[in-house]
Amino acid sequence: MVTPSPAPRTVRLGTRGSPLALAQAHQIADGIASVSGGALFADIVTFTTTGDQLTTERLINSGGKGLFTRELDDALSRGEIDLAVHSLKDVPARLPDGQVFAAFPLREDPRDGFVSKSAHSLRDLPAGARLGTASLRREAQALALRPDLGVVTFRGNVQTRLRKLDEGLADATFLAMAGLNRLGYGEAANPIPIEDMLPAAAQGIIGVVCREDADPLLYETLRKLNIADSEAAATAERAFLSLLDGSCRTPIAAHLTAEGSHWRLTGEVLSIRGEQRWRAAGTCPRTASAAELSALGETVAREVLEAAGGALPRFTDAT
User: Fold this and answer.
1) What is the pTM of this model?
2) Any idea which residues carry the catalytic annotation?
3) Are the CB atoms for 264 and 318 separated by under 8 Å?
4) Cα distance between residue 25 and residue 18, in whole Å
5) Which residues, in sequence order, are bridge partners of residue 150?
6) Where are the alpha helices (DSSP H) in the chain?
7) Mind listing the pLDDT tens digit for each residue in 266-315?
């Protein structure tokens, strides 16, 4: 007698409702169905976060990091959803109590992309050109190369920022290549070498979060979506950010790369207008444990902090 297979179960996957967030959520939902052999299916539940409602001002004026995750965090803690999918660079350095990362899928292109109707690169822009961005990091890095540029606040999802560029509200902007690629817009931008513009910590990585007491089948299924190299990068880069108390008020960047049998972590902090830059780097074996990767991030962060004189520059409304 053939034993019937158990009926497939549905889990609730929480995400923001932007096109990029939905593309990432569908990627994870498809992965869940595939690696579980059809035992689990994800029902996508969309949320409008506080960050989504801010379209004209900097995030730092309304609370900084966490504005794109708070509503999902609360829903997950209350049991209204079973997992949440985030762009990891938007996730605060510490998760809410009772929540854990279950998976970091394959990292997309971590580079920033330069987008302009009139120039191929930042260096090609005419004197006094207007750069549209709401990122302190990108602003400081750009001004370090081109202090003559004017900066206008540019917020919104990928499509909104591309539209603003078409409308002439700025001469150029930056967008993460990861988001552009996931939405099929990769050809709209010129990738900037990491050596020229170090990315935000965890840029290009998706973070999948569940509760600590998650159903074992769900957790084990999510772990099958995990990529070790993505997890290594997330661990080291977020440890760097955490020690520096990374927020949207300080221009901070970090990136982990593979160099033969070793990992190399590079991190930097810039002054608000890019006049000063403090950078450090360190290595550890590719076989390093999570604890060793965290230690690498913290060591590089301490070296940057020491180089900056023990205190980081912070944006204020008067800056």
Assistant:
1) 0.90
2) 90
3) no
4) 10
5) 130
6) 19-35, 70-78, 136-145, 158-166, 177-183, 216-223, 228-243, 290-307
7) 999 999 899 999 999 999 999 999 999 999 999 999 999 999 888 777 75
